[in-house]
Design brief:
Elements lengths: L2 H7 L9 H6 L3 H36 L4 H59 L4 H26 L8 H21 L16 H20 L1
Helix pairs in contact: 3-4
Length: about 220
Amino acid sequence: MSKIQKFFKGGGGGSGYSKGKGKGGPTPQEALARLRETEEMLTKKQEYLEARVAKELALAKKHGTRDKRAALQALKRKKRYEKQLSQIDGTLSTIEFQREALENSHTNTEVFKNMGYAAQAMKKVHENMDLDKIDDMMQDITEQQDIAQEITEALTRRVADDFDEDELLAELEELEQEELDNKMKNVHLPSVPATSLPSQPASSKKRAEDDEDMKQLAAWAS
């Protein structure tokens, strides 16, 4: 049996609380409050002893070799106070460890309790669910999905063509020729003007005569 099982079982051997004492024992919050009060009390005593140590040390220095007996008594008291300080340090460390362990135990208890609530909630949710029915339902869903896929493929399957491709091309050419003929009918050519074109201007006629003279002069010079 583990230590945790012994703790929850209780009453085993000479250690641990009995079931009766466990039921009437303090709550974790109460125990933590007591431990914190003890820590505060020991901390105050620690401050008091530190002040006494400083005071006795000052007395020993004051008396020195002039009053050797008084100086030795002061040092003895200082040693006793330092010993008490050491004991308080150990006690504070123990209390701190116990307080942290108790806080962790309280946290673990709350976590365990909440996890138990969650487990009960999950059990309640699942109590009306039958695994065999779930398997049957999933099989039905899979079958229906397969049927839907087959229906989709059947609806989108391409129908086989039974037409002659040459006949379709010939018909297409006829349609294109008909469209071209319609376009040509709608084309309007510009009409020929009824009046004659104007005669060549005088300046153009003179330029032509000058060009003829230049040709004759070039022929004579050659």
